[in-house]
Amino acid sequence: MTSDRAYHHGDLRRAVLTAALDVIRTEGPAALSLRDLARRAGVSHAAPAHHFKDRTGLLTAIAAEGYDLFADALAAAPDLRERGVRYVRFAAEHPAHFQVMFQPDLCRDDDPDLLAAKARATAELRAGVATLAPTTDAPRLTGVAAWSLAHGFATLLLSGNLDAAVGDRDPEEVFRSLTALLFTPDGG
Description:
By secondary structure, the protein is mainly alpha-helical. Helices cover 70% and strands 0% of the residues. The chain contains 11 helices and no strands. α2 (12-27) packs across α3. Residues 1-8 have low confidence and may be disordered.
């Protein structure tokens, strides 16, 4: 291994992000330490700071990556209901990103990458609201209602509060059934 390769650890940035996501998934964001992540990656305790500056920088990078993944997941959905399903799926598949994304006090709110990724995700959520019947007179409130439903379901699912209600059923199918109870196919 060359000294350049050893210094860069292959892809130290990705290695630190992956280790951080593992810590967040199992212990939560409060347990995150750059020193511990450096130890896990087998590099000096200062090496992660070259990529993230500090813990807040690392969490900001995680949130930005999460919003990008989230926007990609939402983009393929044909309507608002399926965007809600994708929301729930994203939370289940990326629980560490999900935890960080919705705790703005963990991140630098002026970070350009984070702002761009959030804007993409917001645009995808709004595009879902736009698929509703044009008779809706409150698209912003409709968006808030849809977001509340999907985010609430995803949060309850991740915290284990829906284990009894969902049982062995696919959470995505449960979410579809829930939305069918609340909304008619014409958006009413």
